[in-house]
Amino acid sequence: MRRFPWTIGFSVALLALLAPPRAAAQEKELTALEIFDRALAAFENQRLALREWQYHQTLTTHQFDGSGKVLARGTWQSIVRPGDPRPLEYTAERMEGKLSFFKAGESSEGAAAAAPAQKSKATEESKEKNQAESAVEAVRKYTLRDRYNWKRLPDESAAGESAYVLAFEPKPRQNTKSREERFFGLLAGRMWVSRNDFSILKAEAALQSPCQLFWIIARVTVFQFTYDLEPARSSPRFLRGCKATARTVVSFPFYAVRQRHWLIADKFEPRTPRGLALKNPKPSLSPRSEEY
């Protein structure tokens, strides 16, 4: 979404990557960077394979006070068509209370989709990008491969299969000219990559120190991200749902904005024309609990 496009995009960029399997003897020789490179190459294969498909995506955001009480909630449901450069097709939007970084009824993507009669819709959507596409751009534009020190850890299992485990941490003295580069330059985490097809099965990342992103007086002091891919239950393997969560705290001199975000992607189906999907007038504001 608009408030953290690079963070959400980073999670989407790591969804269900594909690559040809390697022989067991060769797999043991792969370095951390080689595994990462194969995962990125695999993502291109998946994008092509998904050109005839679409999936449904639900983003739910809650905002809390310092004691953990929910102050505001919002949810957005959309259809994602990988490879389509147009904006996501929103099928539902609902907000309760005032969510920071959102302008309900004015400039949020969900609000524009829920009110097609508004003249501002075309203008707002023209500024958006398909999330799957912008995620690929982010990986390359911000040189994520070369921005981190990569280390291969002992293999583990994830999503019901054997996985390589990679750890990454930011290199010192990075070139950070933009707010996105500053953000990525402070992330560290791990990812679990399938030994079978190099898809990302699981990932976690967090800011190592506060990051100034927006205004001089505002800093992101907390960002914690998790991602899990659904176990493969049928063929083709790339039609697998996933879930991601993010916890964020943006601090100002006299207050802090505390939010949690839940993203669910599932319900793969053959691609349909835009505008045919049924609208949901009152989607649930509670996060879905998907157990993989």
Walkthrough of the structure:
With 292 residues, the protein is of the alpha+beta class. It has one domain (5-270). 22% of the residues lie in helices and 36% in strands. It has eight helices and ten strands. It has helices at residues 5-13, 24-27, 32-49, 109-114, 120-126, 131-141, 144-147, 179-184, and strands at 53-64, 70-80, 89-96, 148-158, 161-170, 187-194, 200-207, 219-229, 242-251, 256-270. The protein has a ten-stranded antiparallel sheet. Strand 9 (242-251) and strand 10 (256-270) form a beta hairpin. The two termini are 25 Å apart.
> How large, in whole angstroms, is the Cα Rg?
19 Å
Number of helices: 8
State the helicity in percent bands: 10-25%
Mean pLDDT: 81
Amount of beta strand? 35-45%
Describe the SSE topology.
Elements: H1 5-13, H2 24-27, H3 32-49, E1 53-64, E2 70-80, E3 89-96, H4 109-114, H5 120-126, H6 131-141, H7 144-147, E4 148-158, E5 161-170, H8 179-184, E6 187-194, E7 200-207, E8 219-229, E9 242-251, E10 256-270
Antiparallel strand pairs: 1-2, 1-10, 2-3, 4-5, 5-6, 6-7, 7-8, 8-9, 9-10
Descriptors:
ten-stranded antiparallel beta sheet; alpha+beta; 10 strands; 292 residues; disordered N terminus
Describe this structure in a few short sentences.
The chain has 292 residues and is of the alpha+beta class. Helices cover 22% and strands 36% of the residues. It starts with a helix and ends in a 22-residue tail after the last strand.
